[in-house]
Input
Amino acid sequence: MNRPEREAAVRQIMERTVPRLPPELHTDAVRRGSRMLRRRTLARRLLWLLLWAAAVTFAVWAMVAEPWVEPPSETTPPLTGW
Output
């Protein structure tokens, strides 16, 4: 296909009328979009709640267990120099 034929084909495609969309397409798209937004919002809130619960759980554990304190020695050191 040479250049004039390609240009003619493109002109023919561009001169066509735009096909009409079904009227119910808009309402279906809005319904699906709002459902997706609700699900996304719910998922985001659940994740924040889970993150908050994990942070509180960690804080409570850290206050009770005190992992930064060295545990007491279970054996006595050897006595030398007596």
Q: What stands out?
A: The radius of gyration is 35 Å. The chain has a mean pLDDT of 91. The helical segments are 3-15, 24-65. The chain is about 65% helix and 0% strand.
